[in-house]
């Protein structure tokens, strides 16, 4: 908060009626926002922790924070052009919960809907162009997807114990913010995972891409430097992008066919539901109303699961396609 201090002479302090002319100091100039302040030092673990809490949630624990990602799911197969398959919309709701040790628990729900590329309507079924089969579309409902934000680099997700490689060196959370002009700063974050699949080929022959999940996610955050360095803003709005590389979606029923999919999207955050697209918000209120409010504190104990583990938990294997009818053998020619 800007303060203006008047430096008074000793004579005024002793009760004289006025100070001699010229002895009143000029007001202090406001500090120019930068990566090191005046509010957060973004070259320290603590500064980055508080920056992420204000991006993902709100330091005011009574206030929710909402986020969206809006983009396209692309099919990738060798020997042919990439193919835009359908759109997708991420709907998230979060709030912060400060802990006695100074860490923050981010209590968070996340839904992913798949949409028609032309109309933007939420899909409930889809004609898979690779197989020419009409399949049932399954919404992703991650309830909860919680995160612990400390001054240290976070551990990778365990995905309910499927990913065993969760140990990382405890280093300060230094995210490498940089100024990009127009009063904006940006960072990039990424995670690369390779872990056993919950959808085993034996149980899920049509849904499983194989015994291992190869998944990567890439995040870009763009925020206002002035907002980041304003202590009055307990929440900082941002935009950016999210990219995910992952196996074929299980409901596409591609099995172990070569290839994979790629999510590409623009992300944004906001403090009210008004940031969501009207069609998306209407669908959520009708089908997943609990997912547009942050989860209660007691949900923290539940494990985080990715969409692949949630599918294995909530869905049933699709039946194998019927074998094509066998044409009867031609009749033997009559004997002479």
Helix content: 10-25%
Instruction: Characterize the overall form.
Output: elongated
Radius of gyration: 27 Å
Tally of DSSP helical segments: 5
User: Secondary-structure element order, as H and E?
Assistant: HHEEEEEEEEEEHEEHH
Main sheet specs: 10 strands, antiparallel
Got a strand count? 12
Give the termini separation: 110 Å
Structural class: mainly beta
What are the low-pLDDT stretches, counting only 5+ consecutive residues below 50?
Answer: 1-26
Report mean pLDDT, rounded to a whole number: 88
The percentage of residues in β strands lies in 25-35%
Explained architecture:
The protein is built from five helices and twelve strands. The protein has 336 residues and is mostly beta strands. β2 and β3 form a beta hairpin. The chain starts with 9 loop residues before the first helix and ends in a 22-residue tail after the last helix.
Brief synopsis:
The protein is mainly β and 336 residues long. The protein contains 5 helices and 12 strands.
Keywords:
two-stranded antiparallel sheet; 5 helices; 12 strands; 31% strand; disordered N terminus
Topology (elements, then pairings):
Blueprint: H1 10-13, H2 45-56, E1 65-76, E2 83-98, E3 104-115, E4 125-128, E5 133-136, E6 140-142, E7 147-149, E8 178-181, E9 184-196, E10 212-224, H3 225-228, E11 238-246, E12 260-270, H4 278-287, H5 307-314
Antiparallel strand pairs: 1-2, 1-12, 2-3, 3-6, 3-7, 4-5, 8-9, 9-10, 10-11, 11-12
